[in-house]
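User: quick one, fold this
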Amino acid sequence: MSRMVPGHSAPAAGFEVPLEMLSACHGRIEQQCSTLRRLQSHLLAHGADDQARVAAAAVMRYFDLAARQHHEDEERDLFPALLESMAAGVPVIATPVGAIPDVVSHDIHGFLVPPRDGKAIAEAIAILAGDREKLSWMSRACRRRVRAAFSIERLAQEFSYHYARLVGHVSLAGVGGARSTPARNSEPLRAPEKLED
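Assistant:
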């Protein structure tokens, strides 16, 4: 028996097809954002009438209840597995839903195929199985991508940069007893290096 995602009647949004469920969830968020965009012009034209209040309450209810945990499974299960596979040099075959296209570039780190397209999946597998040079090249690209964008060092560099920008200070000393001074009295902050595939 298929468990359905609340607010969706399409059987494709069941828990048995998690990537399609993720896509359906993203579709719901896009709908809510579209409502917010329309609400903005409605408020300018009609003020905070009953229709605006009902729409705003529905959007707020959605984000309070459903959207808070929207990415929980994605962050807890899907992306760690995706990044671990890529770090091990395994090219990806996935559907372009959620943040997957932000991590995986088609024909560089693997293949992005349409949802529920068994033929496209089979073709991607056949390409990787039949072209060892492409498989090797994609494998190296996957490892480079994870090292460049998701390593502890990279994340620490980005966190430090953004934190320093927010507080207006940069650290002048190493770990333990670090002192800081306003950024204007020290070297200019450097943005994290540009990511490359």
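User: anything notable?
Assistant: The longest strand covers residues 92-94.
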